[in-house]
Backbone:
């Protein structure tokens, strides 16, 4: 059960968000520099492979449709590319951002960007404890601080500063695990839940995040895209354990996400006013994923409740995707790949909205525009 849950942690929807935005360095078109990716399993590209943790995706059939690996698992919690990968490809970048903990995240490889993401991680340090190991956002930013120094060595301090502040995008996809694998977890967080109201807990999250984003700003980050928390009450895991009908979602989980998302929007407005030269883009992952789930047929999906790869219950939502899981036939017909994470087909739709879409889902500018600022 622990192993099962761990997966879950992952992050599901959140991820969706944008994290990934941009991966690469595209000197031909306006000199895009690097993509620095922070967050949770929605955008993990393999850091957890290097941690002793229960939250891992480096087992088949994960990655079965991922061309870059020839269908082998890489640590991505989906059948193909993450939103970050897809955004990078669309921008024509040559390499995916390297995972910080991977041995090849050294030397010039970091000029295309670095991925600090960890499945199971959250805004709060305690989030994801049930996985034993994961990197929370504080630590992800400590790691970026190391990378920042490497940039000074590689490029010299004035060129490095320009590269980081004007030619790079920082994406942060985080928050879902703070609910799924912290506040809503009956065993580990019961203390916090007894002593803290949702308001108090969300206050803590926002105050931490303000501090975390300000630290990135102090390290010369200027172009940010921050994803809100997706409809975590609608993932196959939640629908299965709560024995819901197809068209129902878990109210309490979605309410917490919505409440946090409102505060996040205010925080980004505040930071846009307060930190000179910075642009904080808000990615409305919640509404985007909810639209995919509600109107799935319009987007060519046949299933929006059931995991393609998983086992247990009505929606295959209990046991994470692995070698013994049952797998659906049409992997591109399912919104969800596993009990927690979207399929590559869903990631594609999400990524394109974030790249090219209007202010309903990405504001004040989309990622293409952010890149060209
Ligand atoms: C870095 O290593 C990972 C894991 O082996 C691999 O998937 C990736 O393609 C490598 N990236 C670069 C830029 O060498
Ligand atoms: C969270 O962990 C980081 C890294 O270990 C540490 O620097 C930070 O002070 C911790 N934050 C809290 C609130 O405990
Ligand atoms: C980055 O690391 C240095 C120590 O090397 C430390 O003094 C500084 O406060 C750190 N900056 C941030 C924003 O964490």
Residues:
């Amino acid at each position: 059960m622990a192993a099962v849950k761990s997966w879950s942690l992952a992050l599901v929807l959140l991820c969706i968000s944008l994290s990934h935005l941009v991966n690469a360095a595209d000197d031909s078109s306006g000199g895009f520099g690097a993509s620095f990716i922070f967050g949770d399993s929605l955008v993990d590209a393999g850091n957890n492979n290097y941690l002793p943790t229960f939250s891992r995706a480096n087992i088949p059939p994960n990655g079965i449709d991922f061309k870059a690996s020839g269908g082998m698992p890489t640590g991505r919690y989906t059948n193909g590319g993450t939103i970050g990968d897809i955004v990078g490809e669309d921008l024509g970048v040559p390499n995916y951002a390297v995972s910080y903990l991977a041995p090849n995240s050294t030397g010039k490889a970091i000029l295309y960007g670095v991925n600090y993401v960890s499945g199971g991680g959250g805004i709060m340090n305690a989030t994801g404890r049930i996985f034993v190991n994961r990197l929370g956002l504080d630590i992800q930013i400590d790691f970026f601080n190391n990378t920042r120094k490497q940039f000074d060595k590689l490029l010299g301090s004035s060129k490095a500063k320009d590269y980081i502040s004007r030619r790079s995008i920082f994406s942060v996809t985080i928050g879902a695990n703070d609910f799924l694998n912290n506040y809503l977890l009956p065993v580990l967080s019961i203390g916090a839940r007894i002593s803290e109201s949702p308001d108090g807990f969300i206050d803590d999250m926002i105050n931490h995040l303000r501090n975390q984003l300000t630290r990135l700003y102090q390290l010369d980050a200027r172009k940010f895209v921050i994803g809100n928390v997706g409809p975590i009450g609608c993932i196959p895991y939640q629908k299965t354990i709560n024995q819901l009908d197809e068209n129902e979602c878990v109210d309490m989980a979605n309410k917490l996400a919505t409440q946090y998302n409102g505060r996040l929007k205010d925080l980004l407005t505040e930071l846009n006013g307060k930190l000179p030269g910075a642009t904080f883009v808000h990615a409305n992952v919640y509404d985007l994923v909810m639209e995919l789930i509600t109107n799935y047929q319009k987007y060519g999906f046949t299933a929006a409740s059931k995991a393609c790869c998983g086992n247990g219950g009505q929606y295959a939502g209990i046991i994470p995707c692995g070698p013994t899981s049952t797998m659906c036939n049409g992997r591109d017909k399912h919104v969800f790949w596993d009990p927690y994470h979207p399929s590559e087909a869903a990631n594609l739709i999400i990524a394109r909205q974030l790249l090219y879409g209007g202010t309903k889902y990405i504001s004040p500018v989309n990622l293409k525009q952010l890149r060209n600022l």
